[in-house]
Amino acid sequence: MNGQVIKFQEVACTLWDVVAQFKKRANDAQADLLGAIQLRNEMFKEKEALLNEKEYWARERAVLIREEEEFQRVQHEGKVCPNCLQHSAG
Question: pTM higher than 0.90, yes or no?
Answer without folding.
Answer: no
